[in-house]
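Q: For a teaching handout, I want to show students what a protein-ligand complex looks like in token form. Below are the inputs, and the small molecule is magnesium ion. Please produce the holo structure.
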Amino acid sequence: MEKIILTGDRPTGRLHIGHYVGSLKRRVELQNSGEFDKIYIMIADAQALTDNFDNPEKVRQNIMQVALDYLAVGLDPEKVTIFIQSQVPELTELSFYYMNLVTVSRLQRNPTVKNEIVMRNFETSIPVGFFTYPISQASDITAFKATTVPVGEDQLPMIEQAREIVRKFNQTYQKDVLVEPEAVIPSNEICKRLPGTDGSAKMSKSLGNCIYLADTAEELRTKVMSMYTDPNHIKVTDPGSLEGNAVFTYLDAFCRPEHFAQFWPEYESLDALKEHYQRGGLGDVKVKKFLYAIMDSELAPIRERRLAWEKRIPEIIEILRKGSAEAERVAAQTLSEVKQAMKIDYFNDEEWLREQMQ
Ligand code: ATP
Ligand code: MG
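A: Here is the structure, written as tokens, with magnesium ion included.
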């Protein structure tokens, strides 16, 4: 069986370091591993509209921003197909048929959707489109017969929903048309769900607590220096706590052993640094400067590649146009198999045609 990746992001803002550690970094590794037959990366504008229907301008403005972020982190248009969801109408048609295979109560149980409904104050008036986005996401994944979906932890319930739809479809229509996808989530616990700079549960475009891949060195410095730490760590001599301390959480996500020799040789490891902080006598500012140095070394090359691609916008438009056309070809093929399995592609169905003539 072919190994195929489908993954993507909502164009609701520029991409941030949560996306980077949660999914983008892994995508680039998988791209370069040469182990996959096809890789599709989707800019999920139709999904973004499910909770931004009244602000299409925001979605529209961020298509190019997300494409730039992709190219900046090292996704290579020669190796991956980058496309825009709304330009592949077959995905919507698949969703329409999949809706029959999912119950309202099953959607209501989805913990990520539950969470997002609260976050967006949708409790009393949930748009149907938003409520059903896990079904639309199943269409995105299955249209490409994806086997592998590299995502952050918040997406696990979506992949589970997609797997259920695949099983239900293949069983109901007695044909193995659709492929069950597997999620690939980061092995580093922190990277599964990177918290915001304010220490809140998740860095999210919609919460305004992000460090963006496109941030300048100065913006990065300002954000790191004003990050949430331990509110009780007032004097340098006070013992500090690591619990909910975003600076240490980010160190867990970004710090590698070699960073000590490079930026802070006084300490030999992150454990030694943590131990000193907890004991007291180590100020937040020093730790933040260390974190800044590490993050800047990781983000500077991304920033530079982004600046270079910003001068090549016409090429990017072509990448997106071609990618969307290719994605549509593949999705149309799956849709036609789906309709055959459901026996609703009448004009190509010899049996149906014969029956009518009798
Ligand atoms: P929105 O607030 O509009 O939902 P978002 O910041 O949650 O935006 P998405 O486009 O929904 O971003 O997510 C894209 C991918 O990035 C998903 O695979 C998701 O799991 C992952 N991701 C998003 N935020 C984080 C995070 N803070 N830590 C790890 N992975 C993340
Ligand atoms: Mg999200």
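A: Two things your students might notice: Strands lie at 4-9, 38-43, 81-84, 148-150, 182-184. The longest strand covers residues 4-9.
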